[in-house]
Amino acid sequence: QVQLVESGGGLVQAGGSRRLSCAASRRTYGLGWFRQAPGKEREFVAAVNWRGGSTMYADAVKGRFTISRDNAKNTVYLQMNGLKPKDTAVYYCAADPNYYGSQTMYTYWGQGTQVTVSS
Asked: How far is CA 110 from the centre of its chain?
């Protein structure tokens, strides 16, 4: 079992920045961020492999968001810049011992943290 605890959500104005953190109870191969807006399906945001050398992003956030991980702390971060109202969602951290990618195939999920971007 891997426990994931997200933090860093909150209210931010459009154009602002926010950094989300996700602390894992132990190291895993793949770590990802997903988000779900009201009335919409959960969608992929970003993912990073265990070395941190390989990352992928959804087109909607490419160039604005950066995912990184600190293996010494078993923590993954999502730096979000240039936030837009359409980025408003609950953001979920996900982890898997064998998978790294953009699909919701991750075994472990956090409880989510709300990010609200005001216009």
From this structure: 10
